Amino acid sequence: MKAFAVVANLSIPGVGSFIVGRIGEGIAQIFIWGIGFMLTVFTLGFGAVIGVPLMVGAWIWGLVTAFGYEQTQVTVNVNTHSEPPKS
Fold first, then answer.
1. 81 or 40, greater pLDDT
2. How far is Cα of residue 12 from the mean position of the Cα atoms in its chain?
3. 10 φ, ψ to 5°?
4. Measured between alpha carbons, how far apart are the two ends of the chain, in Å?
5. How many CA atoms lie within 13 Å of 65's alpha carbon, on the beta-carbon side?
6. Of 31, 37, 72, 82, which is most buried with the most CB atoms under 10 A?
7. Are 54 and 30 in contact (CB under 8 A)?
């Protein structure tokens, strides 16, 4: 799963973060990459000074998020022998 997330982030920053379950970070990565793309394209290249570093930063952030993800196991204990609350 982690390898697939890294490969997905190579293509589109943020998608691999969605795959590993880090939805908020994935949305932020896509948003930042999109702002960088718009700055680069719609300013006829003048915004590339800011846009390209934003795009590269979002791409690297996505790779680090997907590659560094460690799946943890959560254990929940339920006490079924409790007394009813006293009033």
1. 40
2. 11
3. -65, -35
4. 50
5. 28
6. 37
7. no
**Of 56, 24, 22, which is closest to residue 39 (Cα–Cα)?**
56
* Cα torsion through 68, 70, 71, 72, rounded to 10: -150
Tracing tokens 């691999």 back to the chain, one arrives at 16
Q: Please spell the DSSP secondary structure of 19-52, one letter per residue.
A: HTT-HHHHHHHHHHHHHHHHHHHHTTTTTHHHHH
> What does pTM read for this prediction?
0.72
| Residue 33 neighbours by CB under 8 Å, 6+ apart | 13, 14, 54, 55, 58, 59
pLDDT tens digits, one per residue of 4-15: 888 888 888 888
Q: Distance between CA atoms of 76 and 31, rounded to whole angstroms?
A: 35
Q: Look at the block and give the residue holding tokens 């994935």.
A: 26
